[in-house]
Design brief:
Blueprint lengths: L2 H28 L5 H16 L2 E6 L6 H9 L20 E4 L7 E6 L9 H4 L7 E4 L5 H8 L5 E5 H6 L19 E5 L1 E7 L3 H4 L2 E5 L3 H4 L3 H7 L5 E7 L6 H10 L11 E6 L11 H19 L6 E3 L2 H10 L2 H7 L1 H55 L5 H43 L1 H17 L3 H44 L12 H17 L3 H6 L2 H61 L4 H32 L19
Parallel strand pairs: 1-8, 1-9, 2-7, 9-10, 10-11
Antiparallel strand pairs: 2-8, 3-4, 3-7, 5-6
């Protein structure tokens, strides 16, 4: 199965899962079983399945054949090169290739001078007026090539302006841009590019991130602090004729995240241009031996397993595919790299989506089943009571009324405790959101900015930035304490109502902030590498450093807290919902029991009619439980958890009871 076919299969898998969740959502609505909170949770699951994206990032110094590799893997079916690929620098700014349903083919270019604002690239994506936008003629390869060539455009500016834009200057050209004889430097004309055009892989939700070389990549911290760490796979490209150069090693260490030793999951090293060894003087065995030695050397230098290093010839792979030369494609080894891409990327991403979808739907299905079970128990209790009244006199019926009223009074007394718990729950929720919410983060960000701008020395700048992380971690720690208090309080209340009133309640799910702590750890590591260094603090002007910190670190921290805020809000809704639902249902059952006995007391001849009604209701509830079980299996099958025969894979949508 080819790369396009595997991505298409993955897309169909997501669509099938979304359809199965949608069937559950519609069934709950038709049978009036769900509530608004549950409906919102299922809609969120469906949206996440539809909008899921897969990001593959390509990182390399210039002249390593990065753009040619992208052409060979993704765009050979165009019959020509789509991305510019020639000697020297062809990609001067981070470039995202994607397709959004409903969009039009176009290229968006963000001018380099937007760096002088306080806005990050992610923020500026919300405002089209800051971008230079050109339509793309998707059917014309030539027009597409001309448009995409714009990502390589440059400007010549003075050194002072270059530094204000965030570019380092180095007279030797080793750690920064090298001025020419006139003292001018060459910088990218664009800060970022987003290219929207139709392609089978992009339509399936793939995003290709093409990055510039070392000097350009370091000038856009958002790329290294956000885009690259969040990529699902990073391909680091080397050239077989140069091996691992000093600039390659610097880029690997500084800008390829999570690439340490054996844990380099999702980080693939590509040793490109192996066709340079096809000189006609060595046989295939000697060439294979030379390639194997280079792979071993590269793996040792970068401290990754040899299985993570893939020797290829992107140029020969592209030519072979365009010309239909299967032998040349096989010799280029491009297929082995593609298999690694799908073997590494898709199953990992699929597992994450499967787990999250099962967590959300499983929780709601369990709540719905508990609700239906509670209704069934209450109904059977009514049925038993009324059946026992057959042939009884009025005094027995009056006794039953007194008994139910007594249960109702006892339950209402218990409700006082429940309402008290609700009050405490609201108080703890407010405290939790005060520490984890966006208002607290905005306040902390404001104080840090003021401290940095008021600082006169680099030590003060460092202390302000490090204090920012300390305070964020303190907020997470306080949140963890409050989450523990909420969980313990609800656990006690759940057990009490289960024992005293027979409610079937499982202990509330716990919630962990570990994920967000890990995100902060990664962010702080990148901050320490790229901003919190003696050289950067001494050589960077205070306002520039402050702007850089808040355009990158603070933006990424905000995303982490936005995610935490959303997740904890969903948890708070989910953790209280079962108790609220069961309490409400128990109240309704007591009311129905009392009304039934009252009617029997007033007119004994209605007893048989009422017994028959309850039996019919019992049959409906049993059918709903069966339908719910079928919907659960439907979702599990769509997600690949349950494996049934072909005749069982198409689950008809359950009918309304």
């Amino acid at each position: 199965m080819g790369l396009v076919d595997q991505f298409t299969a993955y897309s169909h898998w997501r669509e099938g899962a979304a359809e199965a969740v949608g069937r559950l959502r519609r069934w709950l609505d038709r049978n009036e079983i769900g509530d608004a909170q549950g409906d919102l949770r299922l809609q969120y699951v469906i949206d996440r399945l539809h909008e899921d994206k897969l990001t593959v990032a390509f990182v390399a110094e210039f002249s390593r054949g990065k753009s040619e590799l992208i052409n060979a893997i993704f765009f050979s079916d165009f019959g020509d090169r789509v991305l510019p690929s020639s000697a020297g620098r062809t990609t001067m700014c981070p470039t995202e290739l994607q397709w959004t349903p409903g969009a039009r083919p176009e290229i968006r270019l963000l001018p380099i001078r937007t760096r002088q604002t306080n806005a990050s690239v992610s923020e500026l994506k919300q405002y089209p007026e800051h971008w230079h936008i050109e339509p793309l003629e998707g059917d014309s390869v030539t027009a597409l090539q001309q448009a995409l060539a714009r990502v390589g455009e440059v400007e010549r500016i003075g050194q002072d302006e270059s530094e204000r834009l965030g570019f380092s200057i180095d007279p030797r050209g080793e750690t920064g841009l090298k001025p020419d004889a006139a003292g001018m430097v060459e910088v990218p004309a664009w800060r970022h590019a987003v290219i929207q055009f139709r392609h089978p892989l992009l339509e399936q939700g793939l995003i290709v991130l093409d990055t510039p070389g070392l000097n350009a990549i370091g000038a856009e911290p958002e790329l290294t602090l956000s885009l690259l760490p969040n990529a699902h796979i990073v391909l680091f490209i080397l050239a077989a004729d140069t091996g691992v150069t000093q600039s390659d090693l610097a880029m690997w260490r500084e800008y390829v995240p999570a690439a340490k030793g054996k844990s380099a999951k999702g980080r693939i090293v590509v040793l490109n241009k192996i066709d340079g060894l096809w000189d006609g003087l060595r046989d295939d065995a000697r060439i294979a031996g030379e390639i194997s030695r280079q792979v071993t050397t590269v793996a040792a230098t970068l401290d990754v397993p040899e299985t993570n290093v893939f020797p290829v010839s992107a140029q020969k792979g592209l030519v072979g595919r365009i010309q239909g030369d299967a032998a040349l494609v096989a010799r280029s080894r491009i297929g082995e790299l593609e298999r690694a891409l799908t073997d590494d990327l898709l199953p990992t991403k699929q597992d994450i989506i499967r787990e999250r979808t099962l967590d959300e739907t499983g929780d709601l299905i369990a709540q719905t089943r508990a609700l239906l079970d509670a209704r069934l128990r209450g109904l059977r209790e009514q049925l038993q009571e009324l059946t026992d009244l057959r042939g009884k006199n009025q005094s027995v019926i009056e006794y039953m009324m007194r008994k139910i009223r007594s249960e109702k009074t006892e339950f209402e007394q218990g409700l006082q405790t429940y309402y008290a718990v609700r009050t405490v729950f609201s108080s703890l929720t407010n405290k939790l959101l005060a520490h984890l919410g966006m208002d607290a983060l905005r306040d902390q960000t404001r104080r840090t900015r003021e401290a940095m701008l008021e600082s006169s020395f680099s030590r003060g700048l460092r202390q302000a930035m490090e204090a920012y992380f300390e305070n964020l971690r303190d907020n997470l720690a306080r949140s963890t304490t409050e989450i523990g208090e909420i969980t313990a309080m609800l656990d006690t209340m759940y057990k009490r109502f289960s024992v005293e009133h027979g409610l079937k309640l499982t202990p509330p799910e716990s919630f962990s902030t570990l994920r967000y702590e890990k995100e902060l750890d990664k962010l702080e590591q990148a901050f320490n590498r790229q901003i919190n260094t003696a050289l950067t603090l001494v050589t960077t002007e205070k306002h520039v450093l402050t702007q850089k910190f808040f355009e990158t670190v603070a933006v990424q921290a905000r995303r982490t807290f936005e995610l935490a805020n959303r997740d904890v809000t969903l948890w708070l809704r989910a953790v209280m919902s079962p108790l609220e639902t069961q309490v409400r249902e128990y109240q309704l059952q007591l009311k129905r029991r009392l009304e039934s006995v009252k009617r029997i007391h007033q007119a004994t001849d209605t007893l048989e009619d009422r017994v028959e009604e309850l039996k019919q209701s019992e049959a409906v509830l049993l059918a709903q439980l069966d339908e719910l079980a079928a919907l659960e299996i439907d979702i599990q099958t769509a997600l690949g958890v349950v494996d049934f025969g072909p005749e069982q894979l198409e689950s008809p949508e359950p009918q309304a009871a």
